[in-house]
């Protein structure tokens, strides 16, 4: 980590939360890593994570320089390295990185893991062919992180992100008194399948305004897909039939899916000539 720049309050809170989170996940080290998502040709069209890999596999990612943003326990770094990419990955939490490093060693995968914040990367300019961000942009300062992603990417590099999302209209319903004070407390146990919700103090689902800022760094995205109409909101993802039905419904509702989905997958080439000053000055959604 760059000792010269102290962490912001938000980064420090995220770090503390994830240090504790990592301590409870050491069991990850006992299980073999399942590489199906990257290697299996039978694809799970209903699953956003799998859809991201379907896109990346079609992009000839083997042998390319790939950056995994906020890699946590290293899942995506491991899968992409196994698929044949040259992977570098970073995160704020040394405990999460320790798990990721051990798994990579066990699997004999050469991945460079580093501890740093997304808002200030230590990588050189114009290095990466691909940048992959999953469930991380909603934890960070978006304009600063996007600006850094643009800087370290080669011209025409592919950016792929897969994040929790809520259109401001849907969000207003979610935080109405009826849902927030009455419905949500009754549903929360069921929706999270009895697990404690994994939500940090500062994380915010991406809004359409955040998506605008992120996609301002890109040429026209090649894919924009929405997932989770009811899944994760009213129903847990334990019921495969309902998960498939949910994805099918959102597919049929494509013209209005951006108002309804709770997860977004967008991918396409970055535009190095994007006006970084504009990205930095655009206000993100209120926190
Ligand atoms: C929800 S987890 C996602 C981890 C991983 N991308 C995945 O999908 O498994 C969020 C991760 O972001 C990291 N994080 C939070 N704020 C960060 C920041 N400003 N810079 C880098 N990593 C950050 C946390 O330590 C945590 O590992």
Give a verbal description of the structure.
By secondary structure, the protein is an alpha/beta fold. The protein has one domain: Rossmann fold (3-Layer(aba) Sandwich), CATH 3.40.50.150. The chain is about 40% helix and about 15% strand. It has helices spanning about 10-25, 35-40, 50-55, 75-85, 95-105, 140-150, 170-175, 175-190, 210-215, 240-250, 255-260, 275-280, and strands at about 65-70, 85-90, 110-115, 130-135, 155-165, 225, 265-270. The model has no long low-confidence stretch (mean pLDDT about 90). The structure holds S-adenosylmethionine (SAM). The site of S-adenosylmethionine has 19 residues, from helix 1.
Write the SSE topology:
Layout: H1 9-23, H2 36-39, H3 48-57, E1 65-69, H4 75-83, E2 86-91, H5 94-106, E3 112-115, E4 128-134, H6 142-152, E5 153-164, H7 168-174, H8 177-191, H9 208-215, E6 223-227, H10 240-252, H11 257-260, E7 263-269, H12 276-281
Parallel strand pairs: 1-2, 1-4, 2-3, 4-5
Antiparallel strand pairs: 5-7, 6-7
Helix pairs in contact: 1-5
Residues 11, 14, 18, 70-72, 75, 91-93, 96, 117-119, 134-136, 139-140 line the site of S-adenosylmethionine.
